[in-house]
Amino acid sequence: MGGKLAALVAGKPEYSQDNRKPGDVFFHVDGTTIGHTNMTSSDVTKKVDSVDGVGVRSMPLARDSNTAIVFRFHDEGLALRAAKIAEEWANTYNDGAYGTNGVGYSGGLTAGIGITGRVIGALMGASKFGTGARARLLKYRNRTGMAPKHVICSEMCILAFQLCMAENAAGFIRLDAKHTLPSNLCDHFIRNPAHWSVVAYKTI
Question: Distances in Å between the alpha carbon of 77 and those of 24, 73, 107, 176?
Fold first, then answer.
């Protein structure tokens, strides 16, 4: 981890089971590049994320061997609620394979090669929270489990937090989840230290 990210984690502890909290959001880091977004589950031995070919999944955090920077929301109660929302979206895992009973990843012609339609949409759209994002949130709030149909990794984390609080609440993530990439979300956390803090780094 280098550049400003190294400065952010300077003096912070390594992320371990002893200091994990539900709803912590962590980003895989390759040098100075922000990558995949993850959330620590209500059971802090696990994480929840969304990946191509599966969709939302829950898995042991010990299986994630990536270097990461870890952020924590200022309200631990709301962070726990966000973690539980995301967990409800996870596809079940049985006999070495994930089912299709949860929230999926974007499909289409690019599915399975890592450059999916939803990622392309995130790249092409504006990440500012507006009427489109507000309308989608209202739609999700009226569904069982408040579940979207498809999410990329950063979108999953944003929606889980947005759906557990009012739009005028302190710390509401004012980003359009559908059009926000991991790097945009990480920048948002860095710019909002009143609500998000770097608490640790992860190397294994």
Answer: 12, 9, 34, 23
CA 163/CA 18 separation, integer angstroms: 28
Tell me the per-residue pLDDT of 16-58, one tens digit each, with 9 for 90 and over.
Answer: 999 999 999 999 999 999 999 999 999 999 999 999 989 999 9
* pTM of the entire predicted model: 0.90
Task: Give residue for tokens 């969304």.
Answer: 50
Instruction: Using DSSP, state whether 172 is helix, strand or coil.
Output: coil
Look at residues 32, 2, 39 and name the one whose alpha carbon lies nearest to residue 164: 39
Beta-strand pair 68-73/25-30: antiparallel
SS3 state at 3: helix
Angle subtended at Cα 180 by Cα 175 and Cα 185, rounded to the nearest 5 degrees: 75
Cα-to-chain-centroid distance, residue 185:
9
199's tokens: 């608490």
Q: What's the gap between Cα 109 and its chain centre?
A: 24
In the sheet with 55-60, reading across from the earlier edge strand, the strands are 55-60, 46-51, 33-40, 25-30, 68-73, 196-202
Whether the Cβ atoms of residue 53 and residue 152 lie closer than 8 Å to each other:
no
Angle between helices 153-162 and 182-191 (to 10 degrees): 40
